[in-house]
Amino acid sequence: MTATVAIEHVEKRYRAVRALHDVSFALEPGRLSALVGHNGAGKTTLIKLMLGLIRPDGGSIRVLGENPAAGEFAGRRCLGFLPENVAFNAALTGRETLAFYARLKGCDARQGAALLDRVGLGEASRRLVGTYSKGMRQRLGLAQALLGRPRVLLLDEPTTGLDPALRLTFYEILDELRRDGATVLISSHALDELEGRAEQVLIMNRGILVADGALAELRALAGLPIRLSLKLNDPTVRPAWVPGDAAIERDRCEIGVLDHTGKMQLLRQAANDPAVVDIGVAEPTLDELYAHFLRQQERAA
């Protein structure tokens, strides 16, 4: 499959600050990727490079097969972008704002009304943007980014200010775009939201890409324990097959195993033991993986 975004050995400096160091990765069509890292890790710089707003000091960037910083970049109208802090003309209505951006993108302005309804701004579409709350402006920004059904969608903290119901709608829209073959990249600190949704995770730290892969691949690389939580009908009796270092508190027994073979063995034993009345399994979370790879990179530095 041909990558829609290809970053190869990219370097970027801001005077004495090395914002990016030898960063390489690819984004594929029909996939949602998560770009995570602390403030200052290089996430926003990468997005600006993909949009063609700035140029790299080294390496190459290709978006839809072209250099996005080139003046004749034909794929620009196929990009959608939502910045972390959206800013619109306060004297325009929501409807007028989308009509303006539709003209810039060269797409049908009638899309705007449907998108405003989709993001929950249908009734407020004729109000001035200056009267909108932060969450409403964020929704307007999302509608703007979705104009023209972009082939590449770059989103920086997109769910800031969105209520839980609209967050679900937001991810439903992204799923539709992915099924249609769009490439979606989300830069976010909301790691719990991205877990189970992101098919690729890119972890940045101090301008260095410290991990890149599917969640299952990162879990295998990290080697963090899988946690089994067993509820016992009699917490005073430790089953013979439970490891001696397993913690038992009240009616719960917590066991950590390092691989799926050990997990399945313990699950079979627990399932066949009448002393166990409930079983819970927790894989290492994206938060834990993020912390692990950052610590690993810091130790290696």
Distinctive features:
301 residues; alpha/beta; Rossmann fold; 9 helices
Task: Write the SSE topology.
Elements: E1 5-14, E2 17-27, E3 32-36, H1 43-51, E4 58-63, E5 79-82, H2 94-105, H3 111-118, H4 134-145, E6 152-156, H5 164-179, E7 183-187, H6 191-194, E8 200-205, E9 208-213, H7 215-222, E10 226-232, E11 247-249, E12 252-257, H8 260-271, E13 276-282, H9 286-300
Q: How would you describe what is shown here?
A:
This protein is of the alpha/beta class. It folds into two domains: 5-87 and 137-219, Rossmann fold, CATH 3.40.50.300; 225-283. The chain is built from nine helices and 13 strands. It has helices at 43-51, 94-105, 111-118, 134-145, 164-179, 191-194, 215-222, 260-271, 286-300, and strands spanning 5-14, 17-27, 32-36, 58-63, 79-82, 152-156, 183-187, 200-205, 208-213, 226-232, 247-249, 252-257, 276-282. The strands form three sheets. Strands 5-6-7-3-8-9 form a six-stranded mixed beta sheet, sandwiched between helices. The chain has a four-stranded antiparallel beta sheet with strand order 11-12-10-13, with helices on one face. Helix 5 links the parallel strand 6 (152-156) and strand 7 (183-187). Helix 2 (94-105) crosses helix 3 and helix 3 (111-118) crosses helix 4 (134-145). The longest helix is centred in the middle third of the chain and has 16 residues, at 164-179. It is globular and about 70 Å long. The model has no long low-confidence stretch (mean pLDDT 91). GO terms for molecular function: ATP binding; ATP hydrolysis activity. Residues 5-231 form the ABC transporter domain. This is ABC transporter ATP-binding protein.
